Amino acid sequence: AERFVSFEGENAAIIVNNKDWLLDLNYIEFMKETLNFNEYFTLWLEGLNEEIHFWKKFMENKGGASFVGWEKTISPERKFELESEISKDKYGKVYKFADIGSGPFSNCGRITDKVKLEITCIDPLASVYKTLKSNNNLKSYVNCETGFVELLYKKFGENVFDMVHMSNSLDHCFDPVYGIYQLLYICDLGGQVILRHNENEAENGNYKGMHQWNLSLNNPENSFIIWNRKGNRYDICEIFKEYAVFKLYPEQRSEDGWIYNKVVMTKRKNIIRYPDGFPVRCRREDRKSTRLNS
Predict the structure, then answer these.
(1) pLDDT tens string 66-102
(2) Where are the alpha helices (DSSP H) in 136-277?
(3) Running DSSP on this structure, what letter comes out for residue 278?
(4) Along the chain (294 residues), what's the average pLDDT of each consecutive run of 10 residues?
(5) What residues pair up with 218 in beta bridges, in sequence order?
């Protein structure tokens, strides 16, 4: 009989349990409160195979012939890259850091002498990464837990982390505006939410797979704009000005040559919530006044 699935060879399939990342996803809440949930969730699922295949090949080929940072990527001694953002009043203390949408290898590092760093990594595909690492004999120096950015408030509660970070992952969300509410919700007062993303990743990638949203610092508004091809366009600095102080850093360059936009949000006020738990101005009707003309 002809075999349609092979567990051997270069493109060997792997077995994972869908419940590991979908069990806690409350479809009714998402469908009611987030923008076009059914559409974006379908596109997200369609992009899963490509995403998993990318990381499978990445680990098997140690990043590939053109990738020069493999040893740094897997090193347990990698310096904490956001060390300069730590407030001096936190020095010497326990410092709780969350890397959301971290992928299999957090690109933030974990070594610092400034604070006693406690790292939490969250990604919807955590169980897949665990399997891939095991298959390639790679150690996990930081445990990655399964979770969606849209459900962080249920997983952690309010004011938990000193710093919350996302890197090239907010654009994968079903609803990134709602995601930012979640990031601010779990961040402590006075703490920071830090985003590092490519400019307009979805547009540049022809909206392929999970990339359905664009994050921009280079725009006519001179602000932090999230937009997509459906006509949704949001000025994030305006929407969240009540809750955070913004600092925008376009076109930053890492030691490895990565050019990215950096947004630093310092939380100054707790998120106001509805009785049902959803944040104010997260609902569709609350966003009408903040949506920009495309």
Answers:
(1) 677 788 888 888 899 999 999 999 999 999 999 999 9
(2) 152-156, 176-186, 201-204, 236-239
(3) P
(4) 51 56 51 55 72 87 78 87 94 97 90 96 90 88 86 90 95 87 95 97 86 93 93 91 96 88 96 63 50 47
(5) none
Q: Check residue 224 and report its DSSP letter.
A: -
Here the contacts of 138-147 (C-beta below 8 Å, separation 24 or greater) are: 138/59, 138/74, 139/74, 139/76, 141/76, 141/110, 142/106, 142/110, 144/102, 144/104, 145/120, 145/121, 146/20, 146/21, 146/24, 146/122, 147/24, 147/100, 147/122, 147/123
DSSP state of 293: P
Q: Provide the 10 A C-beta neighbour count for residue 163.
A: 24
Single out the residue of 131, 243, 222 nearest to residue 177, CA to CA: 243
HSE (side-chain half, CA atoms, 13 Å) at 200: 9
The predicted pLDDT at position 14 comes to 57
Q: Phi first, then psi: give them for residue 55, nearest 5 degrees.
A: -70, -30
Q: Six-digit token pair at 115?
A: 């604070």
Show Cβ contacts of residue 170 under 8 Å, excluding neighbours closer than 6 positions.
101, 149, 176, 179, 180, 195, 197, 213, 215
CB of 233 within 8 A of CB of 227?
Answer: yes
Strand partners, 292: none
Radius of gyration of the chain (CA): 19
